[in-house]
Amino acid sequence: MSGAPMINPFSLFFASIITSNILLANFLGMCSFISISKDMKSSSGLGLAVTVVLTVTTAINWLLLNHVLIPLNLVYLRFIVFIIAIAAVVQMLEMIIDRVSQALYLNLGIFLPLITVNCAILGVSLFMEIREYTFFQSLVYGLGSGLGWWLAIMLLSAIRQKTEKSKVSAGLQGPGLTMITIGFMAMAFIGFSGMLAVQ
User: Per residue of the chain (199 residues), what is the pLDDT tens digit?
Assistant: First the structure.
């Protein structure tokens, strides 16, 4: 794309993990993030699944946008096409996880197929389009965003396991403490924004 911003791939990669974290900077994909983060093993499995889906679907959606929708003047169908591509990738991943690790498949439960409607997945594809990234930039951004999502859910899971064993006042137990924790995590990640940022 001629309008693609000149961004160093390493800067884009690390910024999408830390300072422009899709979850902690844009608050996309919060539902499964909060629900699954009670257990480290499930959090890791879901984080890996989201990373794979984000990387693959961002690349596929870039190709569909630039080689099918734009040439055929069908850009107005991008939401439908992006979601169909995401659903197909998630369905394949679901079948693979079911065959490889039945325990992880059962632990993730309904949240595995719900990756299809995880707004972080669609959000990354839309940011890729809005920012007019090249294919390589989109691939790097998708991978970095997935790793950032994975890092965030693993950190929250570790913190939640610690707080479950700590004495917490009754008013803060459960969702209250979780939301406060996420707020502090977001401030910590955004605190590095002077170093790297995705625009």
Answer: 445 567 788 888 988 998 888 888 888 888 878 887 777 888 888 888 889 999 999 999 999 999 999 999 999 999 999 999 999 998 888 888 888 887 777 777 777 777 887 888 999 999 999 999 999 999 999 999 999 999 999 998 888 888 777 777 766 777 778 888 888 888 888 877 766 555 5
To 10 degrees, the CA torsion angle through 46, 89, 96, 161? 0
Let me know the angle formed at the C-alpha of 31 by 90 and 49, rounded to the nearest 5 degrees.
30
Contacts of 188 (CB under 8 A, 6+ apart): none
In terms of phi and psi (left: phi > 0; alpha: psi -120 to 50; beta: otherwise), the region of 29 is left
Q: Please report where in the chains the tokens 């989109």 appear, as a residue.
A: 138
Helix (H, G, I), strand (E, B) or coil at 7: coil
- Cβ-contact 87, 116 below 8 angstroms: yes
Domain boundaries, the chain: 9-190
Tokens of 187: 């401030």
Give the number of residues written for the chain.
Answer: 199
Distance CA 9, CA 2 (A): 17
Rg from Cα positions in the chain: 17
